[in-house]
Design a protein that fits this description.
Blueprint lengths: L2 E7 L5 E6 L10 H22 L10 E3 L4 E6 L5 E6 L7 H17 L13 H12 L10
């Protein structure tokens, strides 16, 4: 089990933060293009799920998986979107993403007067704490295939 990468987007689709741990294959495009593609895909999937769901889904879109990876999604009431790609064996990571938001993003970004909300995250403390948090997860493995 492992974590491949993590994105944090604002409500307008700007990528505020990106980090990767065990990503084996690069996209072959610039990071800006990759961020736009990821956000566009999320926007489309959320729209599709909300229109096609047979029941009223209070939580909305949570995750999807392919034959190679699983994408976990969490959106805050303020529109911050946190996306984590993992391998297929990782269970639902909604609580993990919520914890990243509430204990890391809020504590080290929102409450930091030096951080400008809506701008890419420049906090070295946030980066360090996020990396430590991900590496401490029970499903993180640095040697995963």
């Amino acid at each position: 089990m492992t974590v491949h990468n993590l994105y944090i987007f604002d409500r307008n689709g700007a990528c505020l933060h990106y980090a990767e741990w065990n990503r084996k294959k690069q996209a072959g495009i610039s990071k800006d293009e990759e961020f736009k593609l990821m956000y566009g895909m999320l926007f489309s999937i959320r729209s599709f799920v909300s229109k096609m769901a047979p029941l009223d889904m209070k939580d909305g879109f949570l995750a999807f998986q392919t034959s190679r990876y699983k994408l976990h999604y969490y959106e805050t009431p303020s529109g911050i979107k946190i996306i984590m790609n993992t391998d297929l064996s990782v269970p639902n990571a909604r609580d993990t993403l919520h914890q990243i938001y509430s204990t890391l993003y809020v504590e080290y970004i929102v409450k930091n007067p030096l951080c400008i909300l809506g701008e890419p995250l420049q906090s070295e403390l946030f980066n360090t704490r996020l990396d430590s948090f991900i590496r401490a997860l029970p499903f993180y493995s640095p040697r995963a295939a």
